[in-house]
Design brief:
Blueprint lengths: L11 E11 L2 E12 L6 E2 L2 H16 L4 E5 L6
Parallel strand pairs: 2-4
Antiparallel strand pairs: 1-2, 2-3
Length: about 80
């Protein structure tokens, strides 16, 4: 797909780091699969991964954590 930000390059598979803030929690997730723009560095996470990240953030916040740093592990069905 063409990058929506710089509009000058096609994205490529890669990984990124995502920071989420939810319910008083700051969660940093490394090695998240994404489509990366080689020109500007913009990252695009697909819907399945985004839903997984938000679900995990909700669970971690419900457990009372305020800060959490982890590597991405895909949810198993």
């Amino acid at each position: 797909m063409r990058c929506l930000i710089c509009k000058s390059a096609d994205t490529r598979p890669g990984t990124t780091t995502v920071t989420l803030e939810r319910y008083g929690l700051t969660m940093v997730v490394k090695d998240v699969p994404a489509r990366m723009c080689p020109n500007c560095g913009e990252a695009y996470v697909d819907e399945v991964v985004a839903v997984d990240l938000l679900s995990t953030a909700g669970q971690v916040a419900a457990a009372g954590a305020e800060v959490d740093v982890r590597s991405y592990v895909a949810a198993t069905p």
